[in-house]
Structures are given as structure tokens and as C-alpha cells.
Design a protein that fits this description.
The protein is of the alpha/beta class. 49% of the residues lie in helices and 14% in strands. Among the domains are: 45-218, P-loop containing nucleotide triphosphate hydrolases (Rossmann fold); 325-340 and 486-710, Rossmann fold. Pfam families: SKI, Thr_synth_N. GO terms for molecular function: pyridoxal phosphate binding.
């Protein structure tokens, strides 16, 4: 067996004498001390006895980058091709490949890896090493595998002028592109860390990125979460044992002080080159890259995260592009977010979040998830959690509260029809704001939550957009939409776009703002409201005022909201994480029904956001107008955004309108907009009538199937009373977990 150990010429120095030497050097030559200490600390703390294993396709620069990393860490550098394979075989890799053929070569290469051992080294794998499972399992035992992810087009360009005789699998009838695409599945299986490498990026820059990525991998302490209402002094005094990580906030949902969780150090920033490397990627590939940077591998390893993302988006969406961007007219584009199983943008988060939640929660406790919905969340969360593995369904249940008379008939039928053995819908005789406020109060009722834990071994969790795991997937589709416009040649990377979003609870538009903070060139986020236009007034004046406001029932029920929970996260960000100020503002809103932003904060807000609103009459007129001119049917929420976009855009750049739901969910309003005189009250009949129009997009397959199977079904109805809601919750826990 070949052994290579780290060579460390060290003098025997006692701890006291070393301390005295360090102190003397620090005082006399502080700059030199800092450089020496940084070099020693980097090498010893970053590597230890572990290896850094560089993996990637041929032409990724593994050998060159490995040498630079080794120099920076002052440790051995091993190239598997040159230092192991050719030494073992006494011939070149190309000769070996020519002598034994493709399949035998992979086996011989794997055997050589199994005999190899190293410690504290930087190792550059061959491009084909990851195709041998046993060999890679052996290498991973003592190493951190870093995947140099270089776009296929860049690799093709790099290899074009090089000899191809060392690329395993290359033969007549098999293209280099096919080989590179085939190998990706093996790279994705083995890596611990992904490093994005753009086209012209220098090897020295890649090496620094590798070191940064390894440091992040080894230090999960950096990626903690805080409450929007925690003060800086509270955060500085917090002990390590009380720090919260991704798994904690997914499980807990809402902070104990009533605030919302946000990452303490903010979201990761991508370079322009990194974003450009994703232009040709699929939606699933983009999601994997973005979410890997937002979720520490100590919380969810990259391989598990990839599995979860594939499960969420692989087969559950009717469009292979997942979130396609369609040209509407002029400089307006639609981001179609309704191709998931329940026909709304909520599917993007709620096909993914249940699997994240199931992975993060401890196995020793049952969980009941509380959901409040103004329409689309209910069916989406029911469908998402119904797709969990059976073992997870036994320990995870949910109850969905919705305003009994505040959603469309089809939405209501869908929520009732999506009930499963571990998921129920409860209609509440009130509006969405009551449902959402009630859930917050239940979470903050320590007596009640403690009773459920002690008596039934059951903890409560939230799956509304206040849960951090709900927001992250939404960032992906806003970034992906921009990249799609670049891919289609509509814009070049770096050109700005505006985004217009029908906005209720502020989660979707906040995700767009987060995408902007991560490096997507979004100029303005346009907030589109209906007649419940509290947000519009707030963005224009800085005054959030609920005094005398009553919720108005409109044709766009998902934005029939007066209290926008996720606004708190945005204000926390622009207020430089001033938790005391956020607490003051939202306590004032709760107690007095209003608050006003300081002038400087309003200025910051208006640099990011503009806002408008639209009446029901204008909403229906827009649906009719767009259908008459394009043959495309907008849903009522998208129509609200279309009206506001028409009024507020300056036409100097493209505008992406979020199409947040399929029009079939709001058939009565759509039929009215299309000026149908007689409308059958049966939801299924309404869909059949709409399908006769042969419009774009076609009737939603999942919605039609749900209504065919379930009809209107049974569900529980509850009074707008906190005691009644808590009684419902306790009964459901008894029936499911006991």
C-alpha cells in the first residue's frame, strides 16, 4: 500500500517557551507574527490529518489548483494520474487505457485508489476516479471532496486544442459532451463541497475559493440564525449552546420572542462569473447550487440535499423547465409558477420543505405543523407533506386553518380534497389575518405548547411563509427567471430587470429582494396589491396603518391580507439588524394598529420597492384584454400584477411578472372576465367550460384530477375563538399520535 504522510519539521518546544516566543514576536514584529500565525493556523486547523481531494471533469484545473492550494497550506500535493497511477503501472495513463480498454481501465484505476493512503495532503483526482464506487468510498474516509464545477461549455473549449487520448470513454460515436454530461452524476454523488469555476477565472482565484469553501465546511459555527427582534447585546451574550442553526429554525418556525429567523451573517453573495456559470444549467441544477450555499453541509450534506431537490422537482411538475419564463407583450415577461401539483407558486417551497423538515427534526418527538392560509398554501402544504415517506408520516402531521368564506370555491374544494391520513383542513369563521395571528399566539403560549409536549410528546411547528425553509426555494425561481432571460438572448448578464409580484404576506417579493442581494441584477421590486392596499400605502408613505381597516374580499384572495408577516424580515435588513427598532415597530402595530418609519429607512425602502394597487374591475378588464390580444389567460393575482406593472414600469428594461397561480383555480372570476353570462356553480363544470376555450396555458392537470376524485368532501369548521382552535389541535393530536 502506498502511504504519503504529512511532513512537519518541528522543534520540540515546551508550551511555555512557545508562548514566550510568540509574545516576543507579536510585540516586536506584529505584521510578521500575523503572517506566520495565519500560515501555521491555516495549514494545521484547515487540514489536520484530513486530505483536501479535488474532483472534477478533465480540464477543470485540478492539478494546477491543487499545487497552489498545497503551496498556500505548505503541505504535500499528490496528483493521482502522475504520482499514483503512472507510478503503479510503470506506464502513462494513455498507454494503460489503450492497452486494457475502457471498462478494465476503470477497474484498475479503482484498485490503485484502494491501495493508496495519505494524510494532510492536497490530492487531485483523475476525471474518471469518481466512477469507481469502492475507490471513492476509500478516499472519502479521510478526505473532504471538493468538486470543481466548471460549465460544460468551458470544459469543451479548454479541451478543444488538447489531445483527447486520456479521456476515458471517448470513442467513435461517443461525443466529449456526452461523456462530460454522463460523469456529472458521479461527481454529484461524492462531493462534500462545490466550488463554482467560471470561464476565465484564474487558478489562483479558484484556489482561494477552495480554501474558503473548506473553511466554511469545517466551521458550521459561522452560519447561525437570529431573531428579527433580538438586540445586538443579546446576541453578543448568547452562549454557544443557545445558538440556532438551519435545522433548529426549520423545526422551530417562529422565534421565542415573536420575531422571525434570519441568518446572522446574511445570505451568500455570488459573483457575476458564478451566476453566468448557471446560465445553461437546468432549474434543478440551479436550485442545488443556490441552496448548497444557503444551507450548511453540517445541517444537510450536499448529497442529501441533492436527493431532496430531485424528489421535490424531478417528477412533480408538469413542465420540464419547472418555472418557465414566457414572453407576454412588449418588454413584459411572465414567470409561470403554477406548474406544480396544486397549481400555485406555493408548490416550489412546499414540495421541498417537508423533506427538509423531516430530515432536520429529531426522531424522538412527534410534530404537528400549524398552517394558516389565504388560499393556495393549504392545498400545497397538504400535498407536499402527503408525499413524505410512510415512516415520516407517522411522526409528522399538520392542520391547515383557512378562512371558511374567504377562499375561492375551487381552492376550498382543493384543500378539502387534499386531506390525507396525516393532514387536515379546518375552516375558520373569520379572515386570514385572524388565522395567522392565532397561530402566532398559539406558538407563543408556552403553557399550551409545554402541555402538548409533556402530555403527548408532540411539538408544534410552522409551515407558513414565516418559516425560513419556505423562503429559500423562492429565491431560486427569481434567480432562475433572470438567468433564463439571459439564456434566451433577451438580455446580457448584468443588464437590469424589474420584477412585479402580487403581494400579500410579503414572502414572494422578499425572496426576489434576497435574490438581488445575492447578486441577481434586479433594479426594482414592484409590489402589486388589490383593494387591501395597506402595503401600497406603506411603501409610498412609510406609514403602516391598520386603524379602521377591514379586510375586503376580492377576486385575488391570496393577497387579501392586511398584516404582512415577512415585512418584518425586510425592515430588519434595511435597519442594519436593529432588533430593538423592529420590536418597537411591531409592538406598536400590535398595540396601536400603526407605525411609521424613520425618514432614512423610508428612503432605503423606496430605493428597493415601488408599489401600486388595482381594483377588482381593473383586474377583470386586464384578464379580458390580455386574452383578446394574445389568447393567454391570466389568473386574478397575475392580472393584479399586470395592471400595476403597466402603470409603474418605465419601459427602460424588461419586467418579469410573477404568475403565481393557474387561472383554473379562480374559474368563476375568469369566466366573468371572459364575459360568460351563465356560470354553473359546480367547480368541475367550470373547469370543463374553461377548457373549451383552448387557451394558453391549458387547464391544470393536477387540479382537474383532484376535483374529479374528491368533489367537495368533508371538513371541520371552527369558530373564530382561540380556545376552540386549541381544542381542535389537541383532539387531532390525540387521534393521530396516540
Amino acid at each position: 500500500m502506498l502511504h504519503i504522510f504529512q511532513y512537519q519539521p518541528l522543534r520540540l518546544i515546551t508550551q511555555n517557551s512557545l508562548s514566550r516566543m510568540c509574545l516576543k514576536l507579536m510585540l516586536s514584529r506584529p505584521v510578521a507574527f500575523a503572517q506566520i500565525w495565519k500560515s501555521w493556523f491555516s495549514s494545521h486547523s484547515l487540514l489536520g490529518k484530513k486530505n483536501i481531494i479535488l474532483m472534477g471533469p478533465p480540464g477543470a484545473g485540478k492539478t494546477t489548483v491543487g499545487r497552489i492550494v498545497g503551496q498556500k497550506l505548505d503541505c504535500p500535493v499528490i496528483d493521482i494520474d502522475d504520482d499514483v497511477l503512472e507510478t503503479t503501472w510503470n506506464m502513462s495513463v494513455s498507454e494503460k487505457l489503450q492497452n486494457v480498454g475502457y471498462e478494465e481501465f476503470l477497474e484498475e484505476e479503482g484498485k490503485a485508489l484502494l491501495k493508496f493512503s495519505a494524510s494532510g495532503s492536497v490530492i487531485s483526482l483523475s476525471g474518471s476516479n469518481p466512477m469507481h464506487a469502492a475507490g471513492m468510498q476509500h478516499m472519502k474516509k479521510n478526505g473532504i471532496v471538493v468538486y470543481l464545477d466548471v460549465p460544460t461549455t468551458v470544459i469543451m473549449s479548454r479541451l478543444k486544442s488538447k489531445k483527447m487520448d486520456r479521456i476515458v470513454g471517448l470513442s467513435p460515436g461517443v461525443s466529449l459532451k456526452d461523456i462530460l454530461q454522463f460523469r456529472k452524476q458521479f461527481y454529484k454523488r461524492w462531493f462534500d463541497i462545490r466550488v463554482l469555476c467560471g470561464g476565465d477565472i484564474a487558478a489562483e482565484v479558484v484556489a482561494e475559493k477552495v480554501l474558503d469553501a473548506v473553511e466554511r465546511y469545517q466551521d458550521s459555527e459561522l452560519e447561525t440564525f437570529i431573531s428579527t427582534r433580538s438586540s445586538r447585546s443579546e446576541r453578543s451574550m448568547k452562549e454557544d449552546s443557545h445558538k440556532l442553526y438551519f435545522g433548529d429554525v426549520v423545526t422551530q418556525g417562529l422565534a421565542l420572542d415573536g420575531g422571525l429567523f434570519v441568518p446572522e451573517r446574511g445570505l451568500p453573495k455570488f459573483t457575476a462569473e458564478e451566476w453566468q456559470g448557471l446560465i445553461d444549467a437546468t432549474y434543478i441544477e440551479r436550485a442545488q447550487v443556490i441552496l448548497e450555499r444557503c444551507i450548511h453541509p453540517a445541517d444537510i450534506p450536499a448529497s442529501k440535499l441533492a436527493e431532496i431537490i430531485e424528489t421535490a422537482y424531478g417528477e412533480n411538475f408538469s413542465c420540464s423547465r419547472i418555472a418557465p419564463v414566457r414572453h407576454l407583450a412588449g418588454n413584459q415577461f411572465l414567470l409561470e409558477l403554477f406548474h406544480g401539483p396544486t397549481a400555485s407558486f406555493k408548490d416550489f417551497a412546499l414540495q421541498l420543505m417537508p423533506h427538509l423538515f423531516a430530515y432536520c427534526i429529531p426522531r424522538s418527538c412527534n410534530y404537528l405543523i400549524l398552517v394558516a392560509t389565504s388560499g393556495d398554501t393549504g392545498s400545497a402544504v397538504l400535498d407536499g407533506f402527503s408525499r413524505l415517506h410512510d415512516t415520516d408520516k407517522h411522526r409528522i402531521a399538520l392542520v391547515n386553518f383557512f378562512p371558511e368564506d374567504g377562499v375561492s370555491p375551487i381552492q376550498k374544494s382543493q384543500m378539502i380534497g387534499c386531506q390525507k391520513e396525516n393532514a387536515w383542513s379546518v375552516g375558520v369563521k373569520s379572515d386570514f389575518d385572524f388565522c395567522q395571528t392565532a397561530i402566532k399566539q398559539i406558538f407563543n403560549n408556552s403553557d399550551f405548547t409545554g402541555f402538548l409536549t409533556v402530555e403527548y410528546g408532540t411539538a408544534l411547528a410552522a409551515a407558513n411563509s414565516i418559516n425560513w425553509a419556505r423562503l429559500l426555494p423562492q429565491i431560486v425561481y427569481h434567480a432562475s427567471a433572470y438567468l433564463d432571460l439571459v439564456h434566451q438572448g433577451i438580455i446580457s448578464f448584468g443588464s437590469p430587470v424589474d420584477i412585479c409580484i402580487p403581494t400579500g404576506n410579503f414572502g414572494n417579493i422578499l425572496a426576489a429582494f434576497y435574490a438581488k442581494k445575492m447578486g441577481i441584477p434586479i433594479r426594482k421590486c414592484i409590489c402589486a396589491s388589490n383593494e387591501n392596499n395597506v402595503l401600497t400605502n406603506f411603501i409610498r408613505t412609510g406609514v403602516y396603518d391598520l386603524r379602521g381597516r377591514k379586510l375586503i374580499s376580492t377576486f385575488s384572495p391570496a393577497v387579501d391580507i392586511l398584516k404582512s408577516s415577512n415585512l418584518e424580515r425586510y425592515l430588519h435588513l434595511i435597519a442594519n439588524e436593529d432588533g430593538q427598532l423592529v420590536t418597537q415597530l411591531f409592538n406598536q402595530l400590535e398595540n396601536q394598529g400603526h407605525f411609521q418609519l424613520q425618514k432614512d429607512l423610508l428612503g432605503k425602502l423606496q430605493q428597493d420597492l415601488v408599489a401600486g394597487w388595482c381594483s377588482d374591475e381593473d383586474c377583470l378588464a386586464a384578464i379580458h384584454s390580455v386574452y383578446s390580444t394574445t389568447g393567454y389567460i391570466l389568473d386574478t393575482h397575475t392580472a393584479v400584477a399586470k395592471v400595476v406593472a403597466d402603470r409603474l414600469q418605465d419601459r427602460t428594461c424588461p419586467i418579469i411578472i410573477s404568475s403565481t397561480a393557474h387561472y383554473s383555480k379562480f374559474a368563476p372570476a375568469i369566466l366573468r372576465a371572459l364575459r360568460i353570462a351563465e356560470i354553473n356553480q359546480n367547480p368541475l363544470s367550470q373547469l370543463h367550460l374553461l377548457s373549451s376555450y383552448s387557451a394558453l396555458p391549458p387547464i391544470h392537470w393536477g387540479l382537474l384530477e383532484t376535483l374529479k376524485k374528491t368533489g367537495n368532501g368533508d371538513h371541520q369548521v371552527c369558530a373564530a375563538d382561540m380556545s376552540a382552535l386549541m381544542s381542535h389541535i389537541e383532539t387531532l393530536i390525540q387521534n393521530h399520535f396516540m
